[in-house]
Design a protein that fits this description.
Length: 353
């Protein structure tokens, strides 16, 4: 009975915060892009834009919504002296927070699914749709794409929207020692039933003085068209399966392996985010009702939650750049704030015992 009441109180406020934050971010995003969309489409394209952007926004706002929802629910319990009644019935702070753990675990799984599967796929669909619907400005050519394809290193000037035609292709083939053994330059490449075929190829061998011109040449190491689309129009998120495929050499990535190793660690560390936010908000239960102490405790919980999110992002950036080991960059913030939140809650519970 008590668990159902606390869950209802928390979920109502958490969902209200999630809807409000997501709507605000969606409106800001829409205001920034509505003019461009209407110039090349109509109202249906606006709805398509909103639908494809929504999963990433919800995934990004869910941990913060858990924090705000918990702070509001705990503040209400403290203000109405319901915490005093519950403690008088023998419930500790840990038991009150534990009553919310089942729904919190569900939110952890939901966050993991959104962040690592739903949002990346929606981002990819959005990037492909945007590239096909909104043509790039003529005065801003796309940057050259660098990638690893097997043992090859390649660069491409531009990719067609379906990913089956490449322009300005340069391929550097390497030997077993990692030295360049062959350079291929082709103005165009097409993907057909037999795979990639380079056309009008100029072949350069570092040990030879002359250059050879070949009409066509296969490129067996070339990535699939879908892979080229992902490289030409990168997204902010990538599915867990894609990360593992890059690390095992089954998918070409534009970043170093350290970047993807950090993303893998951070993906699993993010499972703890809703739980950490809930624990950081819990000391508000003991804040004095109807006083500045209640406001101060709420502000402290909010600041700690934002600090956790900011530090996790900063450490991930360090890991992606190679400044920190991937496991340390991915897990440091989550483990530190989890331990800190548990210690803080234990001290608050002992002080009121």
């Amino acid at each position: 009975m008590i668990r159902a009441y606390l869950t209802r109180l928390f979920l109502g406020r958490m969902l209200a915060a999630l809807i409000g934050l997501s709507a605000m971010l969606q409106i800001l995003n829409l205001l920034e892009n509505a003019g461009t969309i209407f110039a090349h489409g109509g109202f249906r394209d606006i709805l398509h834009f909103i639908a494809l952007q929504l999963p990433a926004i919800v995934s990004e706002m869910l941990p913060l919504s858990v924090l705000i929802g918990a702070l509001m629910a705990f503040r209400r319990l403290a203000a109405d002296l319901e915490v005093t009644t519950l403690r008088g019935a023998g419930m500790s702070l840990w038991q009150m927070v534990g009553a919310l753990m089942p729904v919190c675990l569900v939110l952890c799984v939901l966050q993991f699914a959104l962040q690592n599967e739903v949002a990346p796929k929606a981002d990819r669909a959005f990037a492909n749709w945007w590239a096909a619907t909104i043509p790039p400005a003529a005065d801003s050519p796309p940057p050259r794409i660098w990638l690893r394809a097997g043992s090859d290193v390649a660069a491409v000037d531009s990719v067609s929207t379906d990913g089956r035609t490449l322009r300005g292709v340069m391929v550097l083939e390497r030997d077993g020692q990692g030295e360049i053994s062959l350079r291929l330059d082709a103005p165009i490449a097409h993907f057909g039933p037999a795979g990639w075929v380079l056309q009008q190829v100029r072949v350069t061998r570092p040990e030879a003085a002359r250059v050879q011109d070949v009409a066509t040449m296969p490129w067996p190491q070339g990535p699939e068209p879908a892979n080229m689309q992902a490289l030409a129009w990168p997204t902010d998120s990538i599915t867990l399966g894609r990360i593992l495929a890059v690390l095992h050499g089954h998918w070409a990535g534009s970043q170093g392996l350290g970047y993807y190793r950090t993303e893998l660690q951070a993906a699993f560390a993010a499972l703890l985010s809703p739980m950490i936010m809930l624990l950081l908000a819990a000391p508000v239960l003991l804040a004095p009702p109807r006083s500045t102490g209640n406001t101060r405790a709420t502000a402290t919980g909010l600041a700690l939650g934002l600090g956790f999110a900011a530090s996790a992002g900063l450490l991930n950036a360090f890991g992606q750049s190679g400044a920190l080991p991937p496991w340390l960059a991915g897990w440091m913030a989550a483990l530190f704030f989890f331990a800190f939140a548990c210690l803080r809650l234990s001290q608050a519970d002992d002080s009121e015992a």
